[in-house]
Amino acid sequence: MDMSQVNAKRPKGRPRCSANPQEVIDLRARGRSWLQIARELGIGRTTARKLYERQAAGNAATHPNQKQFTGEIMNGAEHTKPPAEDARQVDNPGTPAADAPAAPVEATAPLESPFITSKEIARQHGEMLRRQFGERLSRIEALRVATEFKTALVPKRKGGRPPSDRITRAFEDWKAGMRGVTLFAKHIPGWHKHNRYRRMGEQKALTDAIRNRWRRESAKER
């Protein structure tokens, strides 16, 4: 048998995914996990997640109000209660709804302990997000939301390493006129005990550090 004819009948490349992205959206809305969706549709978990994100991005582009609603939830705006809860409160005005979210702590209240008050506000908003989107968020997605919250709360540190105190002292002595063996012996620990090659490497490293510090100081003065 000619193998070229056999290979010509085989489709080339990976087979295309036949799953409907809307089915992934519907199953996810019902509270199914990624593994359950993958087994039910006969696809991989990564493929199910990609189909979900692709379809969700398309829905967000066609429904711009969804982004605005999500932004209001994140900003702590007043959210709409389900009709059943409103009807129950109308019948019994003195009885609060069982599933009604707790009122956020007012920012104008006296803050005896900012840490405790801030922690309580974060807990209440976390519970609000879990009630609103908990069934449709996986654990990884919930951790990403927590990471975004941390990024907004804790500012990033200034890039780069902090200046070394040893290099700062050596730079000050270098500006005062100290050079050569006197400078190296003072600012290189154990310099007298090192051999020739180690001294050469440490001398070059200290000299380069002093030169770089001088360049940065000169750039700031300009």
Summarize the model shown.
64% of the residues lie in helices and 0% in strands.
What are its keywords?
single chain; 222 residues; mainly alpha; 64% helix; 0% strand; elongated
What amount of the residues lies in strands? Answer: under 5%
Inertia-based shape: elongated
Helix content: 55-70%
Average residue-wise pLDDT: 74
The SSE string, one letter per element, is HHHHHHHHHHH
Structural class computed from helices and strand pairing: mainly alpha
Please tell me how large the radius of gyration is: 32 Å
Total strands: the figure is 0
**Major sheet summary line:** none
The quaternary structure here is: single chain
CA(first)-CA(last) distance: 81 Å
* Number of separate helices: 11
Give the total of domains: 3
Indicate the low-confidence ranges by residue numbers. Answer: 66-100, 104-111
Question: What can you see in these coordinates?
Answer:
- The chain is mainly alpha-helical and 222 residues long.
- The protein has three domains: 18-62; 65-78 and 112-155, no CATH class; 165-221.
- It contains eleven helices and no strands.
- It has helices spanning 3-9, 21-29, 34-41, 45-62, 64-74, 83-91, 114-133, 139-153, 165-175, 180-187, 196-221.
- α2 packs across α4 and α9 packs across α11 (196-221).
- It is elongated, with a radius of gyration of 32 Å.
- Mean pLDDT is 74; it is low at 66-100 and 104-111.
